[in-house]
Every structure is written in structure tokens, then in C-alpha cells.
Design goal:
The chain is about 30% helix and about 20% strand. With about 350 residues, it is an alpha/beta fold. Strands 3, 4, 5, 6, 7, 8, 9, 10 and 11 form a nine-stranded mixed β-sheet that branches. The protein has a two-stranded antiparallel ribbon with strand order 1-2. It is globular, with a radius of gyration of 20 Å. The N and C termini lie far apart (about 40 Å).
Length: about 350
């Protein structure tokens, strides 16, 4: 995979509360970029691979030639994609319309002010017939069995980080927010897969336990970095107050009696072969049928949205290219002890 060079200006840094941040468009991105944060990003990459059965993507790609990775982080995903698709080419946000076979974005929470606009841009620069895939985290902690209480600091932090991000004009979407944005942009054959990512090794399931170990490591290394910029800039907290909250959260993060998790969503959409000027296929309907595949341990459960179609999209189907860990759908988010235990 070839790639374009980057401007030296983005290698400039500034420091705040003992952490290193980008100086390029200073303040627009509230997370640090120091070695501790880069390690957290690479650990999250490993967690994503565990949850997705080792797959870098869920879109049904066939030898893509031009791939765009938005917000590439440490570059680990792009490097591994280059190994998987050695004849592909990566470029930056200076391309013509209808250009890319595949556009990918992952873990951009706290960096996007207008998600609908970003998804619309991805649609604009994807080739007809090409795919856009969004892999994103809803960082709010949840539990299905009542072991995470309103009085827990994990719950308090979830509320704080949501409010701070909104104040900072970097809203954190719920995983159910994305499909309407995909539909409005004009994508068809939209499929959504939702995973639970445990906050520590509390599940009995072997792979989930492994994911929980790395998730706990990511939190231990990086939760302070995620919180400092947002809580100080978005809520006016002092750095010392943030660190006190982090100290209170650490025992809860490690407590296997608290069955908390965060939600990770993978969504793919295809740009129709013959989009209209509005971006939507001629047969597009805002009331497109949705189908949920059966939830089983050996298949991906998906929510598929397709138009009624002169564009001839693939019918909704059960995706079973690999064995997932704990897939959910937006109509099936309850606790399933047979999968978690």
C-alpha cells in the first residue's frame, strides 16, 4: 500500500497538565498524543480484533485498490490493511468525488463535531458500489444485571464525559444514532453489528475474558488521558479533581463483581451504483425494511436497511464469515448469560 507524505506542522506539540497534545489546530482535539495514549490506541486495536474475530473490517471487500482511513491514530490498522491488501493505495482528504473503493473510520469519539456531515463526506468520496465502514465506541459504561449502580463512579464518569463532550462540541453518539445518518447520506445495504466490550476479565467466555484483560489495561493506561482534556476544557474541572476521580474509578474498573461493559458498533454501508443528485438511490425510502438475523454464538447478528430498489442491493442476510464473541443488535441488547458465562 502506498501513502502520501504528511505535513511537518502536525508533528508540533503542546503540553498541558503533564500530557502532550497536538499543536496543529490546538484545542480542537481534546485527547493527548503522547506515548501512553498511543499505547492505549494500539491496545484498543487488539480489543477490536478480538471482538470481531480477528477481522480488520466487516464490509465485503474484493481487492480494493483505494482505501481511506479517517483518523488513522498510530497507523496500526492501515499497516495491517496494507499487508492484507498489498495492491491498495492510501490517500488523504484531498481527493476527487467517487474515488475510494473503501472508506474506514474507527474510534473518533471526542474528535467529530458533526457526525452526519462526516458520514456525508465519506459518501461523497466513495465510489459507486464502494463501502464505508464505521467502527465506533460508546464509552458510557452499562450493565445488564444491575451490578453497575447509579452510585458507582463508572456511572458518574459516563454522565460527566457525555456532558463535557457536548459542551466541547464533540458529542458522543449512542450506537443507535448512526444508521439514520447513513441512510440520510444515501448509503444502502446498511448493516450494523454491536458488541459488548467488558471493562475487565469478569466474563467466563474465554475470548471475552481475554478482551476484558486488554480493555482493563487500556483503561488503566488511558482513561486519565481521555478524561483530562474533556473534563478540564468541557466542564472547567481542575486537573487534580480529574485525577481524584480516576483514583476512585480504578477499584471499580478492576472489580469483577461489577459486570460493566462499553458498546462497540461496526456499521457498513454501500454507495449505490446509480445515486441520484440528492445522493440517495431513486428508490430510496426513509421507511426501508429492516431485518434482524437470529442471534446465535456462531453467526453475526445484523440490522440491514435496504431500499426497495432499482439499485438491486443485496438482500438482508445473516453474516457468518467468522465466529463473533458477543454480537448484539439494536433490537437485542439484553443480558444473555449463555454467551457471557
Amino acid at each position: 500500500m502506498d501513502s502520501a507524505s504528511i505535513s511537518s506542522s502536525i508533528l508540533d506539540y503542546e503540553f498541558e497538565n503533564g500530557r502532550r497534545y497536538h499543536a496543529y489546530k490546538a484545542g480542537s482535539y481534546p485527547l493527548p498524543n503522547d506515548e501512553q495514549e498511543l499505547e492505549r490506541i494500539d491496545i484498543k486495536h487488539h480489543v477490536s480484533l478480538l471482538l470481531a474475530g480477528g477481522n480488520l473490517h466487516l464490509a465485503p471487500l474484493h481487492n480494493p485498490r483505494r482505501i481511506l482511513d479517517i483518523g488513522t491514530g498510530t497507523g496500526i490498522w492501515a499497516i495491517e490493511m496494507a499487508e492484507q491488501y498489498p495492491h491498495s493505495q492510501a490517500k488523504f482528504w484531498t481527493w476527487p468525488e467517487n474515488h475510494f473503493d473503501y472508506v474506514h473510520t474507527r474510534f473518533l469519539i471526542a474528535s467529530i463535531g458533526n457526525w452526519a456531515s462526516m458520514i456525508q463526506k465519506a459518501y461523497k468520496h466513495t465510489k459507486p458500489g464502494g463501502y464505508f465502514e464505521l467502527q465506533e465506541l460508546d464509552c458510557r459504561f452499562k450493565s445488564d444485571d444491575g451490578t453497575l449502580l447509579d452510585s458507582h463512579n463508572l456511572t458518574y464518569w459516563s454522565r460527566l464525559i457525555t456532558e463535557a463532550a457536548a459542551n466541547y462540541n464533540r458529542p458522543i453518539p449512542h450506537y443507535t444514532d448512526y444508521i439514520p445518518w447513513f441512510e440520510k447520506a444515501g448509503f444502502v445495504d446498511i448493516r450494523q453489528v454491536v458488541f459488548k466490550s467488558p471493562q475487565n476479565p469478569w466474563p467466563k467466555n474465554r475470548v471475552l475474558k481475554e478482551a476484558g484483560k486488554f480493555q482493563l489495561l487500556a483503561h488503566t493506561l488511558g482513561l486519565e488521558g481521555v478524561s483530562l482534556g474533556l473534563l478540564t476544557r468541557g466542564l472547567g474541572w481542575k486537573a487534580e479533581e480529574v485525577r481524584v476521580l480516576m483514583a476512585k474509578m480504578r477499584p471499580e474498573l478492576k472489580d469483577r463483581g461489577i459486570h460493566a461493559y462499553q458498546t462497540t458498533v461496526f456499521i457498513t454501508g454501500r454507495k449505490p451504483e446509480h445515486p441520484t443528485r440528492s445522493g440517495k438511490p431513486a428508490s430510496y425510502s426513509s421507511h426501508s425494511p429492516s431485518t434482524t438475523a437470529p442471534l446465535t454464538p456462531n453467526s453475526i447478528s445484523s440490522v440491514a436497511h435496504s431500499p426497495q430498489a432499482h439499485d438491486s442491493p443485496a438482500p438482508p442476510e445473516e453474516i457468518n464469515a467468522f465466529t463473533p464473541v458477543m454480537p448484539l443488535t439494536d433490537t437485542s441488547v439484553g443480558h444473555r448469560s449463555s454467551e457471557w458465562d
